[in-house]
Amino acid sequence: MRVMSAGDGYMYLLRTVAASDGDRSMSTPLTRYYTAEGTPPGRWMGAGLPGLGGGLIAEGDLVTEAQLQLLVGLGRDPVTGEPLGRAYPEYRTTAERASAQMRVEGLGNGPTARAAGAAASADEEPVARRRRAVAGYDFTFSIPKSASVLWGVADAGTQARIAAAHHGAVAEVIAYLEREVAATRTGTTGQGGAVAQVDVTGLIATAFDHFDSRAGDPHLHTHVVISNKVQTVLDGKWRSLDGRPMHEAVVALSELHESLFADALTRSLGVQWEPRERGRDRHPAWAVRGVPEALVAEFSTRSRHIDVETDRLIEAYVAGHGRHPSAVTITKLRAQATLATRPAKQVHSLAQLTAAWRERAGRVLGRDALVVMGDPVVLHAEDLPLSALEALGLSVMTAVSEKRATWRHWNLIAEASRQSMPYRFASASDREAVVGLIADAAERASLRRTPPELAVSPAAFQREDGTSVFRPKHSVVFTSTELLEAEARLLARAALVTAPRVTVPDSVARRRLPGGGVLAADQLAALSAVAGSGRVVDVLVGPAGAGKTTAMNALRRAWESAHGAGSVVGLAPSAAAATVLATDLGITTENLAKWWHSHLADGTTFRPGQLVIIDEASLAGTLPLDRVTALAAAAGVKVLLVGDHAQLQSVDAGGAFSLLVHDRPDAPELLDVHRFVHEWEKVASLGLRQGSPESIDAYASEPYGNRGRRDRSHYYCQRIRSGQWPARTPQRVHAGPPTQFCSVRSPRSSRGIEDCGD
């Protein structure tokens, strides 16, 4: 899902639409658009359509560019042009803010001010970064790659049936979203006020089908743009969608679409499905049995390019931040890689694409692509016994608790969809019922943390299910008794002092580092505290850039001097982080999940006297840490958790590292951040890390910390660089830009040129 901004953000959906009239919906015979270059026009969908234009727009009607401009671009009725509630808010650009500030400072509206404003608009603030109102949400529904490959090489009739299964799944998910997710807010947050989350009449959406990826591989997917404008059931007024549940439900909706599509395709074509591994740290992917993996790989050109660029961005992140990115950050880096490697979209007809795909498939397989069909076995909701549903619910709760300390409804729905994927169902309602029953069982197996409502709301303020509109839907937070017990065990092991101890020899303490220096005082103090504490579970805290890797290397040398080579091993929450740790310390490492799997499979364990370093511990789940430290305590091993509890944690993190740090007053910590040049930056960054609002004043007091000055300094520096203004000017108002705004110097300053460093 991506947020769509007001204005012309919708235009990319129209660039590939075939320029011809008539119904080109993919649910109609493919021959109606098979030879036309481009993709079918968009179509309207959603239960909120009757509220538009006096009911003149119906489900399935084609979308015109003028209608999109009115609804998405301007927030108006696509038929009448009337405003749908409040107009979209407008936000000033940097040039506008800078011009206003210059007028306040007496620089006026003269040529200099206009030139500065133009420079700011052209040079500093790319259009993509300008703040704009939210016009809608673009949900991209893609079918599994193996199904796209099957669709790409199949005959026209089979293509139509696959497309129909996809469209049916999309329609069911949108209907589910309308029932379970879509809502708006009304009320006031002022004194004595309250905000209610209330139901809407339905969604207003447009759906655009695309055939291929930008690399020209088969990739059947649909962009469903959901308008931010919704009509409230309570009073009929037009308001904005509540975006919070839209974001929270994204993963669950994606899993639901995939399972609904799999059901529909099995009912239509009789295909069977199987899980296929996708590498470490990733869930298995369900694929159509009979579509060879070699063929899937042949048509995954775009994914390979993105993977290569993502790996490069991860390496750059590690080099710049001194730590491996979290799962959330990796997702953002992959999105960045997707944009960076995106080629221009080539428009072809489906006939041209299909012919090329079949030819490529023939080269890979040496024969026509065949899919093993069988008699589909489909289930109804009542076919699964309650005992099976309860067992699946417990399994769902256990899987979620492996990575999260707390969870909500949508986390359970997503996992319930994954775990019910091996089953095929007779209808979407059967699938939804079973997923809901499994999630309900998982909630019953969980421990509720959110207190119940203290009073019953009046009927006017209740939803159909009896819940209060003053509490957001599906907002209850859960945990488990097992997690609470695991936290207690971790705290107890952290208090044990039966682990091996070592002293730091002078040869390690005084060793010259690659940069020419020696261990800093805080590094040596933390190193000595960890080495000699005797704690079974110890911690080492440090922000990025504080020298954790240097300290760990020194600890490794000290430990190996006492216990021999190979006595230090490493673990990490992810395979990539484990690889970085192995490279940095020169030790054997593995990710936590795989190490535990090896322990169960072949008895892999620790040996007495070892030091086990778990890096990026703030991203590790509570239950994996509990299991590993239990084995360590029994084997006479010391476990060191390394990380930063103040770092914004991944949504998957269990929070155990922070718990252990805050449970003791003397947690070893590295305090000197080496990456900053100016002392005030070090102090301010550490203050922000600890949540001190006063630290913001330090940034505001510095020239480049002030937003208004930074806005102006950038385009002033751009003019200086280009020679349009002199780098040194007389001290008068209209001579040009004040050079003190160029506050970050570079080697160019030695030639009389200031660099804004931005």
From TrEMBL:
Name of the molecule in the record: TrwC relaxase domain-containing protein
Biased composition (Polar residues): 740-749
Chain spans, region Disordered: 727-758
Cross-referenced NCBIfam families: MobF (NF041492)
InterPro entries: P-loop_NTPase, TrwC
Residues covered by the TrwC relaxase domain: 6-363
Upper lineage: Bacteria, Bacillati, Actinomycetota, Actinomycetes, Micrococcales
SUPFAM superfamilies for the chain: Origin of replication-binding domain, RBD-like, P-loop containing nucleoside triphosphate hydrolases
